[in-house]
Amino acid sequence: MNRRIAFLLPVVGLAASLLLVRAADEPVKPLRVLLVTGGCCHDYEKQRLILAEGLGARANIEVEFAHNPDKTKATFENYKNPDWAKGFDVVIHDECSADVTDKEYVGNILNAHKNGTPAVNLHCAMHSYRWGNFKEPVVAGADNAGWFEMLGLQSTGHGPQEPIELNFVDAGHPITKGMANWTTIKEELYNNVQILTAHPLVKGKQAFKDKKTGEAKEAETVVAWTNEYGEKKTRIFSTTLGHNNDTVADARYLDLITRGVLWAAGKITPEGQPVAGYGPKK
Q1: Distance CA 167, CA 233 (A)
Q2: Which pLDDT score, from 0 to 100, does residue 14 have?
């Protein structure tokens, strides 16, 4: 072997080792999460702060806000930019924009997720961006089906506020692994018009009295699920839970949302723990 080559080999090996050590020493960048809040019927001023603090305490997550205090028709300037999701690892849709029906605007939101930006959808996000005869089952590919196709499930309304018994129907999924069933405080149980491509994780059962007859009734629906959206099979996690501040602040709820974010970003182990570098900051 050429003496010069023989000399260079250990030098190259040493340099590679140093690079590996340096890479291992470098801190993992936090997940950049965009939390979108605003619109009707909820205390978003407080809930967005509860969510941001809860996520940051449970995982290596930094939350940035897009908030609109408008209570009737919340829209967001960032959605008008075709590259609005660039630089974010996950987008949390927590807006309540049922009356926003601009198809180009909504299409711009959906395009970011079609192109691979994961999403987590909370509560009233399920009842946003709808038009046409949306109370009937939408047809795949129809112009009013886009938002529901991203969600993977179509919901149009809810019953009274009463406690919801939660049953983890896929207890082996990374998002739910090791989590126990619980009963919420008084909350809204969203209906399921149809399950499109969603994979159910949690079902909710609610007992209530019919307003007109006083008859005791019971309803059960899917309240948390995953979906793979579009040709790129973008990861989407959704839950209809989260109307009241006390629910959002519940440690079990925050655990569920944190795991949903980590799963959407591909940063969770099969056992439901953050992968190395994405656990809570010390």
Answers
A1: 27
A2: 43
